[in-house]
Amino acid sequence: MGRISVMVAVTRSGRLRHALLVGGSLPVLLLAAPAMAQDTAPADDASAAEDIIVTGIRETIQTSIQAKRDSDTIVDTVSSKEIGELPGQSVGEVIATITGATIDRANYGPTEVSIRGLGSGLSMTTFNGREATNGSGDRAVNFGQFPSELFNAIKIYKTQQADLIEGGVAGLIEMETRKPLDYGRRSIQVEAKANFNPYQDKITGEGAWGWRGTASYIDQFELGGLGDVGISVGVQRNDVNDPVERFYTSTTWYTCNAAVVSSSNCTEVTRQQGNAGTPFFHASNSYLNRQMTTSDRRDAIFGAFQWQPSPTIDINLDAQYSRRDYSERRNDFGTAEGRYNLRNVVIGDNHQLLSATGSATMQTISGLFMRDERYLGLGGNIEWSPSDRLTVSIDGGYSRTKRLDITRQVRLRTDPFNIYGVRTAINNQRIPYSVDMTQGYLPVFTYDARFNPRDHDVFSDDARLTRSQDGRTDEIWSLRADASYKLDGFIERIAVGGRWASRKFFGYSNDVNIDQTDLAVDRRVNLACRTPFPQTGFLADASSPSIGSYATFDVLCQFREYLGTEDPGNSGNLDSVDNAQVTEKTWAGYIMATYSGELGNIPVRGNFGVRGVRTEVTADGFRADLDVITRADGTIQLVATNDLTPVQIKSSSTRWLPSFNAIFDLSNKMRVRTGVYRAMSRPAPSALGAGRRIALEADPGTGFTSVTDAIDNIAATGSPRLKPTMSWNADLAFEYYANKETLLAATLYYKRFTGGLMPFITDEEFNIGGTSYMVPVTQTTNSDEQSDLYGIEVTATNRFTWLPGPLKGLGAKLSYNYAWSDFKTQDIRYGDVIESNGTMTPGLIPPAGLSGYSKHTLSLQGFYEVGPFSLQGIYRYRSRYYQAFTSNNTQLRYVEGTDTFDMTASFRVNRQVDFRLQALNLFNEPRIEYMPVVGSTRNVEFYGPQYFMSVRVRLR
């Protein structure tokens, strides 16, 4: 147990991470070595052990090791013979226990999975062998919508073979639900789980408790001459709260001229000026605090039907449905003009702003965000074996995700006068302040002593009500056919097959803005809708001082008082120039041979083959003329007219993906695996859109000085001609299986990528105010530059059976991955850019790597199991990484490295009943983001720990 206390200390401080990478693995490896040496036990003892029935952690480890041992490629897996035994609250948490896999956390749990330090955009995920959709616009799967209790196996294929669905440069994640006939017995299982969230307990009037209930039923029936039938059904209701305390900035950052002291917004530095030596620093448009009260309810239903009318026919049908209703009550406060009147600027080594003084309009924003997300998956498969040699199968699938986000918010700003028309002490809408970003990752703002952010009276101006509606629909139809034929000799089997898929993605945004200028109305609504700050200890866990509290308002009250309704609805026309409508059609075919023979005296087996993939993309969008609107302050804004012109852009690619895998059985315990293959990963569907984004304002509340100034802020929402990222890959793995519960494996891997990502400019003609302008529009393209990635991953698993007495129940699993890459992703605003004439202009910001790429990832799992009691602790570390937004046409975002610690304890009363206690994020690891360079804080989020207590009942 001393080892666990060391992990606790490391996680709390976060200062010994790199030492842990080296030293933390030594105890596991040293303890594993004696276990391996003990493998010379007499044969009769081993035989007796075969009759022991194992459950829980041991059973999961044994099943996972055996699945890896039996695989034909380099695979890591977590699996269990029993439903509900996978170690995690969601599928994402389960995947994070697999070697080389790491998760990206949000307040409601894992959102994305990276393999070998490579982001989710370079992975492929299949659900029962089919692609699954999501509501984010990328190809990642929202693992939070799938309850782990309804799965029995998750595999990660690290190398490719010709019969696997293409799309996984990093790897392929395969999620499997149990087939009822294969399960072989009846099972009725019910689990009730209570959730306690300490952060929710800090919120006034809210309860800290939530709940989660899961039930599943599996059974088989003999129908005589009609064969055998199996059914399975699983349902879950998840009703919890996921509060978050947040500091954030806008997603647009500027390079400010440090040599010019401006009394307005800072002067922007161009690439040419910066390369010529002009000093600059990075600043955001706005800096805001956000307090949130959340509600999260998810329902899931899974079903499967299996029918074997004869020994040669196997028919399977499966269906999945989930719905998530999520809401956030938001209370924001901060600066609306982050680049205004900056003085006494101190700049860091990475051109990040370290400290400054300035003055800015302060604002409070009350908001309500609501999300309704629904997933539907349907699939059917027929497998026919007319002879012992021939097997034919046909599989069809449908997957659809619909996401609807509605946000209502009301903005109020400071003014020289308060709501009663009395001049404030500062007598200006802009409040003097200073900011210090050196005290920790959370910037410290100090305001003029005459300004009180908790005073509702001072927020009296620029009232704006906004109703935003964002919708996304992602839909996939797929059909595949496979056939395999057994042969005699070195080639044991030939397999051929084909796959067709049609994916359609549609995304839109619709904003309704209503400006309110009647000061008497502002005063009435301000007085009617005030609320006390809704929680205690806001951002109290940050390493630097926080604001604590500020003036807040009830957003629904504001909508009622201003408009007479809580929801004015959308604009009535969802067509817009920034919509994304993408159709992607895929045709793929393969041929693969499985072989087995000897190389000298060493048995060798594996497969080789080739897969051909044809992808056709059609992106539909709109273009529109722009009207020039002159504002009251003399500035202008551009607004698209309602006269929309359809635009369609087509693109296609054909890729050939050869693969070769070999397994050398050096002994019954030692084997070497090799794989050489070519792989591809397609861009996110939303990144292929043909839309254009027209910025209405230079800063919130500030117009443009001229049309020339405004057109610099017209940007592409996607790049339809983006091609797949391609890589040649080589893997070499060594595996040693000392016994059923001991594994030592190491894999060296190499990837050569063709085509980094960088911005390029094209000139497009726009009619603006009746005059034709050539507008430089920035998109993303594939570069011809080649890049490399080298890596090593290590897995060590052992139960310490060589220890005396009750200590035999101790065990551990270590998974570590190191990767190095020179892949480059350029910043869309300030990175290297290809000009419209084809020349390349060097950027001001160093490029990032692959999205999701972390040099170091570590998972250290310790467990103790004796009799009916088990205890498990999992420490996870991931070094800093770049994470792209859904669309590629955005600035660079970095996520600071994290280390988290989770614990689970369980007690089995008997074979039917057990109790569990689980703690997640035990030491409250925050999420910290930088933009557009490391050290320039963009986002800080605290979620707090979560605790779960459950009872599970099984009936046979």
UniProtKB/TrEMBL annotation:
Residues spanning the signal sequence: 1-37
SUPFAM superfamilies assigned: Porins
A Pfam family that the UniProt record links to this protein: Plug
Record keywords, A-Z: Cell outer membrane, Membrane, Receptor, Signal, TonB box
InterPro entries found in the cross-reference section: Beta-barrel_TonB, Beta-barrel_TonB_sf, Plug_dom, Plug_dom_sf, TonB_rcpt_bac
Domain of life, per lineage: Bacteria
Domain TonB-dependent receptor plug: 68-171
Chief location category: membrane
Record-annotated TonB-dependent receptor-like beta-barrel domain positions: 414-922
Subcellular location: Cell outer membrane
GO CC entries: cell outer membrane
Family the UniProt entry places it in: Belongs to the TonB-dependent receptor family.
Protein name listed in UniProt: TonB-dependent receptor
